[in-house]
Write a structure and sequence with these properties.
The termini are far apart. The chain folds into two domains: 86 residues, Rna Polymerase Sigma Factor, Chain: A (Orthogonal Bundle); 64 residues, Arc Repressor Mutant, subunit A (Orthogonal Bundle). By secondary structure, the chain is mainly α. The chain is rod-shaped and about 105 Å long.
Length: 185
Amino acid sequence: MLKNEARAQEDLLIAYEQYWEMLFDIAFFKTGDTEVAKDIVQDVFIGLWNNISSIRLDEIKFYLLRSLRNRVINYYRNAGVRHKHMDLYLQTLSEAEEQTFGNLTAKELQKLIDTEIRLLPEKMGEIVRLSCIEDYSHTEIADMLSLSTQTVKNQLSSGRKRLKDALSQYPLDYHLPILTFFLNL
């Protein structure tokens, strides 16, 4: 058995000296990464060592090339799975950050709008709040406040303009579409 092990070591050394560079070049060409290519070639030779007793000398090159091909495929398969998991993790993290940031921003924005509405003249602020926040129609607001529909429209127009001017001093570029829709500015 010692003679077989000595022969196996000799065959492995010959194969290593003869094919390592070629296998490395192929692995590097396929992966584009020196360290990954070295690891793949090392794994190929470990596989050869584990199976050397069952491989004929004239089949070693074929075995090495086939093993290299399979290990490169496995590398990409595993890298693809890792990549998918990483993408999913990053997407989930990004969504969580956006949701947290969005909730804080929405609260801050709502507080800012409420503050600016309170700074409007009393009736104007009430009309803006009823129209923009509580979504009452001009006619409903006029009936509630015992005003003409035209007065409500005029007060609402002036209130929106003041609100827009007041909010323009804040860096709300991110929220401009929301404000435009929400407040009909």
